[in-house]
């Protein structure tokens, strides 16, 4: 299976880069992983609702340009489905069985995802109602993808 992460924003912190590298290395046993980092738009401190919408739309257009037509898109969205690690593993496994070999996970910038990206998504996933920094969330998503494969294979890790 090919998994692509499309993310808005660069990782600056070394400890996060190290964690991303570690999970990327672990995932090589299970899938081909590609991470696409897109530049985030700078949001002024006192941005109006209209300015925030324009920023999300601009980032959204960059995201949509990075999504290939044959990709099954899973958008990380606060209004998405909250599922367990086991259900996440089943979701990935079932998609593979159905011939969906191009999975694409989308993590938006600090303002979230545009409505166009949400509409393009085949599935909307929510890890928590809490808000996380998108840089940290990349590590969390990679860990859950790794955990999903370990569960699928019946390998020790998941407790």
UniProtKB/TrEMBL annotation:
Keywords attached to this entry: Cytoplasm, Methyltransferase, rRNA processing, S-adenosyl-L-methionine, Transferase
Cell location: Cytoplasm
Domain of life: Bacteria
EC number: 2.1.1.177
Keyword S-adenosyl-L-methionine annotated: yes
Role, per record: Specifically methylates the pseudouridine at position 1915 (m3Psi1915) in 23S rRNA.
Family: Belongs to the RNA methyltransferase RlmH family.
Protein name (database record): Ribosomal RNA large subunit methyltransferase H
Organism, as annotated: Clostridium manihotivorum
Lineage: Bacteria, Bacillati, Bacillota, Clostridia, Eubacteriales
């Amino acid at each position: 299976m090919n998994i692509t992460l499309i993310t808005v924003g660069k990782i600056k912190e070394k400890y996060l880069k190290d964690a991303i590298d570690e999970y990327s290395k672990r995932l090589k046993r299970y899938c081909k992983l590609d991470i696409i980092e897109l530049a985030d738009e700078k949001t002024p401190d006192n941005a109006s609702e209209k300015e925030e919408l324009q920023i999300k739309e601009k980032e959204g257009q960059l995201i949509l340009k990075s999504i290939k037509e044959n990709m099954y898109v899973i958008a990380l969205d606060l209004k998405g489905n909250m599922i367990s690690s086991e259900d996440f593993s089943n979701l990935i496994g079932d998609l593979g069985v159905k011939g969906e070999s191009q999975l694409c996970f989308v993590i938006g910038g600090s303002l979230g995802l545009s409505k166009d990206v949400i509409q393009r998504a085949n599935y909307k996933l929510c890890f928590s109602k809490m808000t996380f920094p998108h840089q940290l969330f990349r590590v969390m998503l990679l860990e859950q993808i790794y955990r999903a494969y370990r569960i699928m294979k019946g390998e020790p890790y998941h407790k």
